[in-house]
């Protein structure tokens, strides 16, 4: 058996340059953790962009960088600033991201950035080709690299290729508006297995394949000349143990070991013991419905004024893609909304919204998850949403209420949450009321079910299920071909 090669836009390590030397620090993100069991040192390689453009890497450090990455089983694809602009900020984040999240009006269809996307995908494919042979297994991740499967397949007809899409696949009516729709589908069909978070995304993809390429689809397999491509759903989980253990340890912390944030949260809890903390955590992205959520919060407080001074909304937004104009506009909109609502409703002793615009270290995420009575996640469209799962995993005493948008992939597996339509303010405000008043017994019952499922279908299981399915698909295909 050959080695496993993982390909994603970003590598699972971050490069830090200081005082003329370089260090590679492992990232703590969900994908990096989930792939741990697959990316296990010697017989696997992770190919991706390092996060630094060619212009940002001092020439004399280049060999050191390659060495530092190799120590983490990683190898980088070099990208210039122009390539990053066209491929990442351009086609990936101004065309595919809005389109696949149903923000058709935000999607820009520019030939130049499409061409850069193709060229950069070819660079990733070339990097794979340079380090692989036919015995290897390739797992390609996400919407930035949808052409890579076909590009690799062309040169290595018998290699095993899996692809996983982390964002939704939109319905045919949306997808068909993309000028390069056939090329994208053909790019993906270079794979043996294509994975999505949900059955609906899978269905949408199959429908586009059937209608745009006229290919035959048998249940969830597509007949592509002399191969069968399998399409399936693999709902991504989290590193459950990491979150639940951190929450348990956090509960045992002595006052002196607590973070400043935790001390501040405690102080507020002590001064207003009946008050509820409502938490929302997202990247600052228009798909996450942050502005709508703020409006819905104001709607709730106007409808139920008795909850003034009794609830506090903590909004944590991670800066994201701030080079893209839509993200700059959203930042301004959220800043203004928070200012206006706080300005209108605050009292001497109460600020309704605490707004943090930054990335926080893991310990602080745990502070927030464990201190919040309600997690309020209302994306307008979200491939999965791991924050919902992380919140539940940290509720070690099983209290807490999750309010979750039905437009998030995770809603399919989290029926015990209060599911809402993010556009229905009346329903949202009723669910907030219900969450605030939910008896503890009911909270525990709902969370027990959720926790059982999340613990079982953790991220490691997700990665292993995908790899097993890819292997089985290859075996089946080999039997079919030999017939
Ligand atoms: P994202 O859109 O980034 O991922 P999500 O699944 O919620 O969305 O993951 C965000 C991650 O960032 C979580 O692990 C969270 O803990 C972390 N995070 C959020 N805010 C933070 C902060 N302020 N500081 C530090 N960390 C923070 C994409 C898709 C999702 C899909 C994932 C995985 O858009 O739908 O669930 O990929 O496939």
Automatic annotation (TrEMBL):
Q: Where is the composition biased (Polar residues)?
A: 249-259
Region Disordered: start-end pairs: 249-268
GO terms under cellular component? cytosol
Q: Which domain of life is it from?
A: Bacteria
Q: Which GO terms describe its biological process?
A: trehalose biosynthetic process
What terms describe the molecular function in GO for this protein?
alpha,alpha-trehalose-phosphate synthase (UDP-forming) activity; trehalose-phosphatase activity
Family statement: In the C-terminal section; belongs to the trehalose phosphatase family. Belongs to the glycosyltransferase 20 family.
Q: In its UniProt entry, what is this protein called?
A: Bifunctional alpha,alpha-trehalose-phosphate synthase (UDP-forming)/trehalose-phosphatase
């Amino acid at each position: 058996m050959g080695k496993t090669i993982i390909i994603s836009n970003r590598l699972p390590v971050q490069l830090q340059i200081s005082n003329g030397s370089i260090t590679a620090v492992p990232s703590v993100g969900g994908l990096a953790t989930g792939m741990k069991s697959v990316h296990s040192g010697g017989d696997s390689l992770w190919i991706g962009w390092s996060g630094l453009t060619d212009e940002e890497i001092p020439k004399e450090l280049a060999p050191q960088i390659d060495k530092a990455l190799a120590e983490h089983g990683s190898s980088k694809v070099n990208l210039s600033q122009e390539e990053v602009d066209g491929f990442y900020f351009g086609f990936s984040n101004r065309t595919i991201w809005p389109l696949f999240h149903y923000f058709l009006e935000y999607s820009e269809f520019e030939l130049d950035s499409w061409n850069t996307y193709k060229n950069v995908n070819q660079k990733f494919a070339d990097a794979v080709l340079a380090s692989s042979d036919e015995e290897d297994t390739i797992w390609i991740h996400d919407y930035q690299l949808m052409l890579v499967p076909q590009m690799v397949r062309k040169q290595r007809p018998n290699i095993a290729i899996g692809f996983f899409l982390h964002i939704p696949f939109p319905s045919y009516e949306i997808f068909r508006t993309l000028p390069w729709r056939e090329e994208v589908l053909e790019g993906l069909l270079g794979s043996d297995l294509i994975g999505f978070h949900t059955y609906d995304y899978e269905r949408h993809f199959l429908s586009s394949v059937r209608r745009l390429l006229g290919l035959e689809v048998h249940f969830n397999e597509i007949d592509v000349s002399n191969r069968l491509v399998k399409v399936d759903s693999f709902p991504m989980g989290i590193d459950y143990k990491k979150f639940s253990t951190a929450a348990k340890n956090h509960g045992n912390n002595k006052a002196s070991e607590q973070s400043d944030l935790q001390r501040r949260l405690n102080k507020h809890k002590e001064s207003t013991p009946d008050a509820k903390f409502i938490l929302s955590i997202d990247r600052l992205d228009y798909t996450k419905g942050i502005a709508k959520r703020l409006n819905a919060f104001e709607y709730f407080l106007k409808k139920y004024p008795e909850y003034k001074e009794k609830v506090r909304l903590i909004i944590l937004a991670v800066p994201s893609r701030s080079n893209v104009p839509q993200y700059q506009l959203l930042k301004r909109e959220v800043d203004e909304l928070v200012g206006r609502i706080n300005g209108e409703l605050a009292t001497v002793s109460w600020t309704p919204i605490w707004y943090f615009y930054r990335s926080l270290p893991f310990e602080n995420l745990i502070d927030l998850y464990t201190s919040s009575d309600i997690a309020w996640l209302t994306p307008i469209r979200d491939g999965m949403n791991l924050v919902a799962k992380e919140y539940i995993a940290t509720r070690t005493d099983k209290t807490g209420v999750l309010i979750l948008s039905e437009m998030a992939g995770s809603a399919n597996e989290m029926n015990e949450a209060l599911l809402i339509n993010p556009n229905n303010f009346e329903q949202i405000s009723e669910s907030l009321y219900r969450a605030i008043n939910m008896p503890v017994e009911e909270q525990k019952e709902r969370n027990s079910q959720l926790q059982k499922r999340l613990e079982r279908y953790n991220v490691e299981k997700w990665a292993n299920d995908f790899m097993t399915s890819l292997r089985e698909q290859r075996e089946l295909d080999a039997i079919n071909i030999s017939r």
